[in-house]
Amino acid sequence: MAREVKEVEIKSRADTLKQRPWPASPPPSREEVAKVYARRKAEEFGAWCEDNLWFHKRFDKPEALQGVRVLEVGQWRLGNMFAGSLLAELGAEVIKVEPPEGDPVRKYTPFGREEYMLKDPETGEPCGLEFIHEMRNKYSVTLNLETPEGRKLYKGLAARADIIFEEYPPGYMDELGIGYRQLSKINPRLIYCWIGVLGQWGPEKDRVSKFGQWMLDPFAQAACSFIHNTGYPDDFLPRGSGGDPTRSGVWLCDYVAGEQAAVNALAALYYRDEKSGRGQFIEVTGAEAMLDILDFDISWYGFNESIKARTGAWDPNLNQYAWNPCKDGYMMIGGQTDRLWYRIGMCIERDLPQFGRLIHEDPLLKEMAARNALQALTKTYTLTAMWLRETNRVEAEEKLMEYEIAAGPLLYIDETCEFPHFKYRPWIYSIEDEHYGTLLYATATTSFQQRTPARVKWLGRPLGKDNGEIFIKYLGVGQRMQEVLKEKGVI
Amino acid sequence: MCDIIWCKKCNTVNYLDPYCFWNWEGKINCAECGEVYYIHMIQGHMYRGPEPRPGEKPDIMPLYADKPLEGYKNYLPGTEGRTRPYNCTPRHIYLGHADYRKFSIRNRPMRAWAPQPAAGGVAGAYGFYWDIKKLSPEVWEEYQEKIKKGEVRDW
Amino acid sequence: MTDPREVRLEDLPGPKSREELEDMKAPYEEYCRKLFDVGNEYVKPAALDGIRWMSCTMYIFTPHSVSNLAELGAEVIKIEMPRMGDPMRHTSPFNECYYYPLHDTRPKTGTGIGVLNANVNEYYITMDYHREEAKEPFYRLVKMSDGLTECYRPGTFDRWKQSYRYLQEINPRFIYVWGGGFGYGPKAFGGSYDILGQSHAGLASITGFHEDFGGHPVKHTNWCIDWYSGTQITVAVLAALYWRRKTGLGTMIEFSQVQAATRCTGYAVPLYGRFGVVRQRWGNWDTQLCVHGIILCGKSDYPDEKNPQLRNEARYVMVSAFNDPDFKELCNIIKRPDLYEKYKTHKQRVEAEAQVEIYREIEKWAADKSRSEVVRILTDAGILAAPVKNDKEVYDSEHFRQRGSVRWLDDPMMGDVLCHSSFSCGLLSETPRRKFWDFRPVGADNIKVYHELLGYPMSTIKKWYEENLI
Ligand SMILES: [Zn+2]
């Protein structure tokens, strides 16, 4: 898989838009990696793992969810898309139902840059990378659900579906007569999962603006105290310069809601097939799915009225467990138990004798739990950063690895894409897509399996590309009728 | 020099926490003797200073300081006039050690204090019932009082 | 366009019962409330009743992957080191909150709230599995379970003859999960934590304020990569169970949390791959939509509170008005209609320089207002805005209470515990998720499992306990 390395010459802005060579350097060879296993006397086990879990064998193996049919019906958000992706990567047939003008996510592009969008090979319509990256192994059909014919066709699809991931404003589908309560009458085996931000019912349910604009993440992050608890305190940095409550760089609640939707839907599928023969109604929201994984934060309030503080890149529960600035960026170091904590110190002390004097000899830092006090964090990390400012990330990682410490540089995206382990697995990989050319992408997290590994078969899909196949296959609607429907704005 | 200020006047170590001071210029006081130092830090390095500036007003205080040569006597964050308050502490009371509690914020018993009387069976096995009446009768009493006073709430 | 196979709603006979008729007519919200019936979860069936899983896990990541199964009804046996337990039991924010006892022999040591919600509804046993005597009970458990999840460094379970290589011989239906940082490859033996995933995989580099604004990369407040990656293991496990129904065969799943952190970076990887552009941090604004960000208001909602967390921080509002009419209205409200004239199209206002100007002007407008005033004014005008809530406000939220996502539990061992998990990861009308208990003392179910399930006499259990095997 090592490819020839091409040089890029940049003479004008247009040159910067050219395809990059990836990987810039080849990943380590299997022989080199075998030596890593051997050093730990795990040569045989390492070889067994590579034989049985090897990424590049994924297309030699069957798909776990073959035969499961999923409709993905939503706009603007990533929750339904991520839920659909997780199942599609594992072999389900996922059909994304879009309005004839397409899901607005197709138009997302950073800072409005159209030059970072890829053109639909047929229509020339630009499509954003956010959409392409999450449109994995999915078919695209168009349906205008606001027309009676569109709804009728949709019902036909729903009658044959196992799972629907729906993400429209609360009650919208129900009002159109195609919500769970109507579709479950047509198809009692249907597992219908609504995904949203705050809920489709309750005093603070999802709203749309007066002009019809939807609520999108990070509204969910704001509602569950995630944002309030994330970021640097204004004791570290001024407000407006990072000393503020901070949102995740990504729409994290959408991803978290999407994966819980996938879990709940698959559990319901198991229950249907194993026991009841019936589907059910599921509701997952971004704010609540995040609340589920918000550590202990709200429970802590119930314990003694604590409101969690922001501590930036330091974790208030563990010492050491943080990243701090270093010579060429930021370095993450973790190790909490005495065994690991003192090993970190021994490593640093080699270069910075003062560390031993001020940290190891301090009686207040001898006990593991006591090291989590705020002053203990301050002292430990001040001294650690004194070492780090002289050390770059690679050096720090190498030195700490000698002491078997879980440490890693804070990587930027280009560095992530070129990190040897990431390329070896690979977690970053390229695909020659039928429509959009060579694309670099983050591989499916469930790709590494003995029997039924997940896989990415294609990325992105021109709008309505699969109308022809899906409408004839599932609805018996032929080409002539499709032309009529298109004319009427139904598809 | 580096990003601690080891005050020569009083032998106190003032810690300059990395995120606040990584790039920073201004005056900071010693937590113990109050001596004011001018520092200019770039990428964690002391580019200039610490230069004593007696009589001048500090721009900032350290977050923590201690005296390694005197049994690690220390100034915790938020010591008035000496160290910076950490306004982002979880709440206005800050302990740094276990907060023993017998009741949750709605005044129902919770097992959050030590030591707890032994209650397990063979091999550390436990049932599915906290017999508070038997194991901690005084907490049970207190709970009954709270019920009487109407302090036990649903939320 | 009629399809003979299609069943049309119009063709169906009318409602079959009075109840059904009422259901079909009920206002939608009422219908949802009735169907989900929050508060009565326990009387409904559970989806995974009958599945038994072994959890040889520690910390948050792999425990959570199993906890998801336990919330859905699987019976889970959590195996911990004798007397010590999961290291996560020894973590608590600023060392302050513990429940007692950890174990009868250590009456002064507690279980820290760091472990909350990671291993719910499980049975807790102890086993020092690298000792030879532990092999037999371990294999007995494997024979009667559906699967196992472990998180030890690669090769460790293999050395102890309990890797999938061995277990698939004992139980071909067995589903075996290894979860960790890296998996096979050059960094196979690298340890991993949530924070390593955040930093190593690119997520941290795109979270927080840009250095041009004086910011640094920010750690997500929770161990989000542990939790979020764990849930993706659950997805894989449920798919494997589905496939096993057809084939009768188990599988091995190797899952790396570091990879999962890259998976959620959206356009970042393809953008780099195609154009060599490295996605950067953009603070509290959005790179793809504008206006869609968080602003600072001049006044707190709790100016007189003693707690600085309330007094100083209750000043942030999430504002969203990226569509043309919404943005126009927003500009009118802040009395800057010229901004709308200047940035009429979304493409214009989402440019970086435009964002800097627009948010600055909104914050100027909000400088003499409190958070709730700003939210009220915008909401009254039909614009989407919401306060950035803190833990207290989440606790006080009527919305979460009605939906059961924040509720008090009477834990059978620990007493009154506030719960914001399990129920909150989704409402299921037929087989709701639920929590019976959060965690139990180390080894609390030794008799239940070793004696009642595996048939060892009490004298053997006592002996093992004295020998520190369990
Ligand atoms: Zn001094």
UniProtKB/TrEMBL annotation, chain A:
Region Disordered, residue ranges: 1-29
SUPFAM superfamilies named in the record: CoA-transferase family III (CaiB/BaiF)
Annotated Basic and acidic residues bias: 1-18
ATP-binding recorded as keyword: no
GO molecular function, a single term: CoA-transferase activity
Domain of life, source organism: Bacteria
One Pfam family here: CoA_transf_3
Keywords: Transferase
Record keyword Plastid present: no
Protein name per the record: CoA transferase
From TrEMBL, chain B:
Domain of life, source organism: Bacteria
Protein's name according to its UniProt entry: Uncharacterized protein
Organism of this sequence: Thermodesulforhabdus norvegica
